[in-house]
Amino acid sequence: MRGMFWNSRGLGDLAKHKHIADCVKDHALDFMAITEAGKRDFPTRDLDHFSCGFDYEWHVLPPTGRSGGILLGINSTYLQLLSTSKGEYHIKFHLRNKSDNFIWSLVAIYGAAQEEFKSAFLKELVNTCRDNPHPMLIGGDFNILRYQQEKNNDRFDTRWPFLFNAVIDSLDLREITMSGRQYTWANNRSVPTFEKLDRVLVTTDWEYKYPLASVRALERIEALSDHAPLLTDFGQPIPSSNRHQFKFELGWFTREGFQELVKKVWARQPRGNTPIQRWNNRIRALRRFLRGWAKHTAGIYKKEKLRLSTLIDSLDKIAEVRPLSAVEIEQKSNLNEQIARLLREEEIKWYQRCKADSLVQGDDNTKYFQMLANGRHRKKRIFALDQEEGRIEGDVPLRTFITKYYKELFGPSAESNFQLDESITHDIPQVTEAENEFLTCPLSEEEIRTAVFQMEHNKAPGPDGFPAEFYQCFWDVIKADLVQLFNQLHAEDLDISRLNFGEIILLPKMKEASRIQQYRPICLLNVSFKIFTKVATNRLNGVADHVVKPTQTTFMQGRNILDGVVVLHETVHELHWKNLNGVILKIDFEKAYDKVKWPFLLQTLRMKGFSQKWCRWVESFVSGGSVAIKVNDDVGNYFQTRKGLRQGDPASPILFNIVADMLATLVERAKLDGQISGVIPHLVEDGLSILQYADDTILFMDHDLDKARNLKLLLCAFEELSGLKINFHKSELFCFGDAAESAPEYAEIFGCQLGQFPIRYLGIPIHYRRLTIAEWKHVEERLEKRLASWKAKLLSYGGRLILINSVLSNMVLYMLSFFHLPKGVLQRLDYFRSRFFWQCDNETKKYRLARWSVLCRPKSQGGLGIQDLEIKNIALLSMWVYKLLTENGVWQEIIRNKYVGSNAISQIHWKPGDSHFWSGVMKAKEFFFQFGTFLVRDGAQVRFWEDTWLGNTPLMVQYPSLYRIVRHKFVTIKQVLGQENPDISFRRDLLGTRLTAWNELLTRLEDIQLSDEPDTFRWNLHQNGKFSVKSMYDAMVHCDVPVDNRKLWKLKIPLRVKIFLWFLNRGVILTRDNLARRNWHGSKTCVFCQHDESIKHLFFECKFARAVWAIVQVASNLYPPRSARNMFGNWLRGIDKQFSAHILVGAAALCWAMWLTRNDVVFNNKCVSSPMQVIHVCTRWLRTWSILQRPEDRDLFMMASTRLERTAREVFYPHGWRCDLRIGSTAP
């Protein structure tokens, strides 16, 4: 099914009539929404023309006031119009699909273009969507931007985007990502403004029905309209020749007997004369078996789930009229365990497909994972490419073109006359003989195992379909065969090309990618092959640190991605603020990994001293591989690669570093020969010339046009040598000092454009001044998108808690690791996180049950462990202080020469003109030194009074009376004790207690002996004395709150239930007394009795609750808890620790069951007349949670559930508690 939204800017032109008819016909549209139609009515002949022969039904919203009107039509052959409604800014159709009877709503929007009417438009949008009972598709011209990047200039007002996004979140809407182009509207000025005003929004239940729906902006024809039409495709699955490609499902691990099944198949004697033949035959046999097994069990899931539910339901009906027999009780227990396992398998399946970072054990987040997987699928789908050959559409033409493109890209390298002289290696770091022996020594089983278990989970497998989890789970089964392969590799008798297969998938580098060059090819290699390159990479990492120059910071142990950012940031700041001459060239390599010449790689390895055997191993890894292109889930034919390093191979990053390091060598040689010169020689010895992070390369040079030509020649020579191609037209140039006057000449020499600040390098905006609030906007927007309301709707509290912290680690923390966070930005980020966490269905959406500051406390101190951004920011910036104290490198050299000089770091303070980065580090420094001590050697880096070095606190704290009157407070130990007598003078005479304190201090100083070695710093929060961000964060976030929630958080139950218990323990669960405190007006009466409802009453004092707890007392001989605090306090004092944990899980299940039962009565009008119903809900959860317990404890939970049910029957049935109404039935 397809539809279109288009702002036609009126329909008085016959050319527009024809364009609409062509769109309806060419795209086979099932609906057409035309905004700003501009007419009150349309003649029948015009509507027939629009319909292009199809049976269309049209409705018009006439233009009123400043509204341009809407024309909306549907194809009645496929859609039945149930009802319509109209407003000033919309038409809404309630529709039924004739093919499957699915009922949904289609809303065509034309938002107010004038500022004074936008508020009324947003109010109408809310009212239109809020009470709509059906899934909705909403599209059209909203006339409001959402984010700053939806406009091509800086004239961006945040007011309406903020309100628009708030409306979208409050309605749980999700925007379908648009492809085809970035903007949908443009004006006709000489320098046009582009904006994205048109969009398509959907509700989550609509997207659940159409998970593959997509939106594509078509060509904008200026002669017809200034808006681009939006083609909406509902995305029914497209038949594919290899749709049933084998893929190992992680959910299979949970199936009973599955592991024994795999072991049995693997143990069969394979054919083959060599280990590689036997390995491939075993993999093929297992894949063939599992494919058949999976096909046989396909569809069984739903049938089995229905069967189990029916059997459990029938047993529940029996239990309400007579006691279950022992056999029936056992049967019910087994049925509950089976259905819990099926639900878990479904959640794991969608978790695997969406590639989420974490799976919340026991929380039901299946629908969230499914929606995430659908979004990933849409993002990867390619609908069309705009190339020099023209527009390419359709799966077959796309696959043909893309395969041809990559065959040429990975084809043989062109011949070159440039060669490096391998005899000149004096300036190239060399691998030692011992290191070569280490690299090529026999490979042990433990080494192979380490590589296997280092592989990340939930990553896409290669063509054979087996992920890393398979190798980890069945390591003991497969290890003997794998070790044989490695033995063959060491003997150089392994044809590893028989494992070297991969599928290339294309990931867009940017939104609205429309050219093949805008996609990143990721090669999904067989895990069996990646194990070999992973082992080789582990060995290579052991020697790479001194083989690759320190200017390269990527994928190198001990080097931080942000090290290079510090160098660039401080260099830009120094050049600008001191008005120094300099030129910075930010190079853009075109598909760098894919163009590396293998001969150059091997030559580089030889010149660095790698042995011939190691070079042969590397050659076997990178060459001889076969790949196929996967386009829209369809895999093309395999072909062999002739050059390039495949992205997805564990060895590729470090091998690329070795290749790129030769550019640094050539630059250094040219600098030594006087052909080029670097910048800031007063901060870096010989000047700074190059900075590298993989293929992100920055070149620095002094102002000299002739030397710039030399550098351009050097870069061209490197292109010929390595095969890498520099996109000079995409590279950027930044000129400082006198060089700024010659900027056009530099741009002409390099053929590149002049860049604008801030420079975006490795995701960090680099500027010579402080970043403005507007420049932080992209961080806020990214977090807001990641914490969209639709995700909150599909996630439990536990899922939301995990997502809040996980998205923080992936994006915001990156910026917080470099800059100090402005207060306004902090407040906005906390607003988005708070809004996301409290987002929920029903009435709880508007209530926040605890202050945000409480939620940000650690769990051990009464909070939920949400990261406190302000404290996290300080802890992250403190890392730089520690590295400055303890490490040496390029950025440390710059910082010491620029800010520290001969002073101690602890003596340095922020001053006007310091860089944005350094000002943040200085703020963190004041906190950092509180948690560390100096081991005094020469005393040059330690402040005498203010640092901790003599005792556990600074001397200023130990001797405050002396510190107040000392003349020089900021002196170092070396300045004080560097002479025979302490060099300290005071502003007043020392009398009384001051004299006593001074004499005591002198006595202690007599034992201090200075040496020539530098002082060392010890981090007191770690036993090893080394700094960690976590330790500092924990120390700073610590508060003296006497709360002990350790018992709660250690329980093996779903996280959402732990959070429920946390609310319960704090007394904030929304019982009716708590609702009344929040100005809720309604009955305060308990649903089970006539008393006022409170937490203590509902869970512990109500006659209904007392009856339930009485069953627990009879079954376990335990007195019921008096309150929630008593339950997690001293209720189980004296009971074995492990047994008490099991009891608390049971108590948690009981409280959870009572709360769910109460909510069923309140919100779903269900009737509950017997405590037996709560007992059944409780035991169902206990059985479900048993899978989270230790294997040896699972039977205990099953038996406890059975005993609880039996005891309840024995107590209730003789006393008339039998219930005639079904659990969950509606009250009369």
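(the above was protein one; protein two follows)
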Amino acid sequence: MLTALHTLIKERNHNEQAAVLQRFADLYFSGAPADELLARSVEDVYGATLSCWQFIQQRKPHQPKVRVFNPDYENHGWQSIHTVVEIVCDDMPFLVDSVRMQLNARQLSLHSIHYCVLNAQRDKKHQLKTENDWHKDDKGTTAEAIIYIEFDHHSDTALLQSLTEELLEIIAEVNACVNDFPTIVKKAETTLARLSKPHHKDRAADYKEAQEFLRWLISNHFTFLACDEFHIESEGKEQYVVRDSTQDLGLFNYNKASRDRLLLRDLEDEVRDFITNQQIVSFMKSGSRSRVHRPAYPDYVVVKFFNKEGEVTGGVRFMGLYTSMVYIETPNNIPLVREKLNEVRKMADFNPASHSGKELNRILEVYPRDELFQSTAEQLHRTSLSILNIQERRQTRVYLRKDSYSKFVSCLAYVPRDIYNTELRQRIEAVLTAEFSPLDIEFNTYFSESILARTQYTLRLNPDNPVVFDEQAVARKIRQVARSWQDDLHDALIEQAGEEKGNHQFHRYRDAFPAGYRESFSARTAVVDVQHMEHLCEQGDGQLAMSFYRELEEGDNELRFKLFNRKTILPLSDVIPVLENLGLRVMGEHPYEIICADGERIWIHNFLLRYTLSDSINIAAVKGLFQDSFRAVWEGQAENDGFNRLVLGGQLSWKDISILRAYARYMKQIRFGISESYIAETLCRYIDISAKLVHMFHLRFGLQDRSLEQRDDDISQCEQQLIEALDGVDQLNEDRTIRRYIDLIKATLRTNFFQLDDHSQSKSYLSLKMNPAAISDMPLPRPMFEIFVYSPRVEGVHLRGGRVARGGLRWSDRSDDFRTEVLGLVKAQQVKNAVIVPVGAKGGFIAKCLPKDGGRDAFMAEGIASYQAFISALLDVTDNLVEGQVVPPQNVIRHDDDDPYLVVAADKGTATFSDIANEIAVTRGFWMGDAFASGGSIGYDHKKMGITARGAWVSVQRHFREQGINIQETDFSVVGIGDMAGDVFGNGMLLSEHICLVSAFNHMHIFVDPNPDAARSFVERKRLFELPRSSWDDYNKELISKGGGIFLRSAKSVPVSLEMKQRFGIVEDRLPPNDLIKAILRAPVDLIWNGGIGTYIKSSAERHSQVGDKANDGLRINGKEVRAKVIGEGGNLGMTQLGRVEYGLKGGASYTDFIDNAGGVDCSDHEVNIKIMLNEVLDSGDLTRKQRNEIFMQQTDDVARLVLNNNYCQTQAIALAYRDCKVRLDEYVRLMREYESHGKLNRALEFLPNEEVLMERRAASQGLTRPELAVLISYTKADLKEQLNHPDIYDDEYVASILHTAFPNAFCERFAEPLSHHRLRREIIATQLANDMVNYMGITFVNRLHDSTGANMSDIARSYITARDIFALPEHWQAITAMDYHISTAEQEDMMADLMRLVRRASRWFLRNRRAKVDIGAEVARFKPAVQSIAAELGRTLKGSALERWQEVYNRRVEAGVPEALAALTAGAANLYSALGIIEAAAQTGRDIRQVAEAYFEMGEHLSLNWFIQQVNALPSNSHWEALARETLRDDLDWQQRALTVGILGAQEDGVSLADSIAQWEEEYASLVARWANMLNELKAADTLEFTMLSVALRELLDLAQASRHQRPCVEGEPL
């Protein structure tokens, strides 16, 4: 720093001046600490240097200069943030100390102080000369002290001025002392000499000791500050004490006394005695603190002179300060004092070698020096023996002594060292202050190896207030305040816990409590806290102990709360919100750290609380509730929110409050529309109502032994009371809230609230099984059952569409509306589950306590724990099956029927959790065992099977097959959503080696390969898929075609290459990642394959906010913008339903996610059904678990084939419906209306077109789109499954055989018997039959037959099965599907439509012609062979125009590549329907089938009935009634043709040919035949035909048919 200062001095001054200033700076800062200089700016140091230099330039001899100021740039040219003191004066001892003392007395904080001595020469004008060496004390120089001080900034000029004056006074006092010091010493020496002649020989020893003392004093043991002389004068009888002011030295000379003559008898007795006693040397204290050298009270040493009579004649007073040597020197070396000590020893009379003798010596050795001087031997003897008698015991002793002049009281206090602290010292000072009201108290504490600490208190008394005190009383008070808090603790612990336990706890906690605690709480309170802490230490980490109480002095709404926690202090930010939500305001908090003897640390938090909801609170009534509730909140068993105010207000337990909170959370999920905080406010405002709601819940589900009727009566009464209480509710929303609580409690069917866990504690979660049908204003659709799960850790919901339902459980991230998410999923699941036994179900949960630290492992661990709680909560309220008998859950009151079927599956976030769920199910003994959750370790691995992707690929193949493309043999371009690590995406992108994946994206990357090599890219994708983990970044960049790359979605923008522009139709050079994804989704490619998560396509009529996928709002496009030919939805929710419809109307080919990815749920259902049966065999002992597992896993491939076949058949059915719907839209519209009228369908909810849209579709010759038909087919199957679960179906062995189609063939053969007793036998039969009917016959088949015949579902199904098997529909259908890629899809669909029409008409025929229940087996046995015979001969049997039409179709199909037999059968399907009538006619006439068939077809041709039926079929059916009329015309024509055939054959004689018989018949009925012929001619001549015209014509034909009745027996079913 000085180097920098030198440089600055040199820069700013001429050379000569700079040299002088540099010399001065070196001297000036020679004593300054280097760190202080370095901390200051060199500019400021320079300024201070020049300022002082200028300040010392002129000074008169011996005249001090003092300047106190605040330097600033404007006035001084430099600055300091502190106030500066500059002093220059003659150098002398004690100068710096005295100046510093005065500043400290003003309580000014000093920041810098340095001092130097400059040996100055000054000229006559007192100007400083610069020629001499300032360091040398030469002749003619004066040593001048320069002092520089900085203290806290003060701007008060009056203060600065007064401080200046005080410092000048201090310098003057020091000067007075220093100047007179030699004279005072000489005075002492003179006095010493004067004492050489004792006034009496008996006092010689005393005089000698006095001389020794003065000699010792002069030998650097006393700093003399002042000296004066006095003598005693007598005037008559009066004596005066007279000072000789001419002899005043030092301070006495500087500060002259106000009086020099005092009447002796006017003095106080102690003072008079002090002056006149026989002591040669006496000691006393000054009443004023010294301002020189040390801020202590100076000592007076008074040496008295005596006459021969021993009377005091005068004396000398020396005032000063004992030097530091006195306080460390042994008192045995101090004259006079050593005599006192010898007298004490003599009085004690101890053997010097004894313990007591040695201990007394030790006590006297360390005795306070001032006390040794001031005390008499008797006082010392009494005090020292008392100290000796303490015997190192933990006691408190107090010794008081007043000095001779009554100026001071000295107090020696001995206290146990371990309790001594500042607090105790201050308490003792408080006692002394109260007793003596002193002007000042000084203390000095002495510690040694002793267990006692000694403090000397010096009290300066107020001379205006004479003091009279009781030493014992004062000592008793000091002992009371000095009594160890630990002592009280010891006594209280023994009293509370007994001696042994109390001593143990005392040793553990004796030194544990900090001073703050001891000051605030009594030892008895600590004993209570010790018991809490002992209990806490017995518990595990993380536990709390607590105490809720009220001090006696506090108000009715004031409370105290202590929290005890081990190891660490509790964050107030965690505690205070809990207390506030309990209705308490925190008025104050004090933490105390308790450190036990073994090092254990316990924190006590003491809260001062005020209850805010009332003016008083009964703490005895709520203490337990409060502490339990706080603990529950703290430990995470209860949530911290406004509901907790009901604990103190309503005296409700936290568990009861959880009921109200759970319902509030459920309200939020069902979109009640009132916030949770408002609900809590309402409940807290109407506490009695809240308590009554809880009571109602207990009445409904409490475990009291009451019948359901009694419960209902009690609940009704409670409800009535609640309704009446609503009269006192002010706000409408408050009324709504309470009524909603009532509704929800009544709609609750079951709860686990009263169940206990394995430790007999309340469960940490609450399950509520709800009846949604009983809840008004719920979002649609309403499931049949719903289980809501609530806990502070997890919330979730499980929705079921029926008693037998299944669906995955999703780990949701939508805390505010996870039920909305699940409801949307269950809606999709309902339609997805159309192909399987269970109806749709879906569950979702949110993990509410996910860790922020700990990484993925900690995150997953908490997710799994939440999942486990959710699963357990679902099972808690689910019935079990034990040996085939329903066993209700324990401690659950049921308000519904038996309900044991609960099956779950994996979903988003829970893909690997199935084993966890199954373990819970097995552990709990749930009847489903490891069939409870599909896809576990002993389950079908969907990813390994690729079943979901393969199922969706079936849909993709069908779309392309309809376009004439075989994607297994032809390269095609694909845009993908997902990555190869994913199940659906990864498996899907390996299902064809001809995939040209031009782009894909996931949440991290965008993959672009504008012109990929199909073969090489396939191999690379396969490599990625087989990696344990992969992302697009792992793709081999060298394999990407020119212009492509892998881009981060987090990038600011992505460069767009020429190849990308050409491939995706982009014009920009750079695009933000989201815009690039938009362009990719709009690309003109063949396929978009969705295997990821998110919704990327909506309709132009939808807002992004309606989609429910905020994360992808920035990249979502509209359906009409998609240019891809096909979309495959392997992942869920990739498109909105309206987005699919918009895409479909534009010409795009797609189904829905629930159709495309149904393979996963179908596979899981097979898994569950197989396991259910195998578990039965396992339980019976016929299989070991190992065998069961082996058999189960052996079915994997067969199950996959069954699943894929279901996907194939379902998409095929939609394709046929799509074709059919274009010409028969009204049938589908009628079906939707039918479902709506029965409450089975909400068109708006399922995004099916309304009537206005349907009119537009009709006008545009458009039917329903594939996505819309996907919904409708699912609803149809679901409805059929429900209706077909009927004894007429599952009790018929013939029908029930369809059960085996749900299982692999080999499995059925091995386990035929157990399979026939499958627990879900009825449901499986209904499901398989429903799928069979719809897949073969179409969506409207059942509804159409029901409308036209009025038959019930069972009769329709039985008629269908009869017709199906008679005409061998499955075999022929399979033959058609085997022609995939060999003939056009249109041709295949034509043949299928022909077969569908045949079986539909045949089913109707059986409904019309069999009044009793059809005996399916008998009918099939009767009709099937004959039908096969007729079918084989159609080409030879048909006549005329019928034969021509058959031949035309047959030839076309054969030319297309259809096998001849199949072509023949399908070409004649319309004619083959007649086989039923032919077979009936053969039975009636007894003729051969061939003969009857020939006659039947001949009559048809002869009477132009073939033409007529064509006209009937060609009639437009613009309404339902027209369709029914057409069906009736066909039925009538069929009957009449059969009647005519029977009539002809009945009249035919043996040997007469058919032609002759017909001719004979025509001749017999010539007029009727002619009338029919004329009618036909008129019809043929008409421009258009109407229903009325054909009906009239058909009536004419009826006359002709009836005319032949006499020739043959009555035809069954003919009209009369």
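Reviewer note on protein two: The CA atoms of residues 468 and 1439 lie 151 Å apart.
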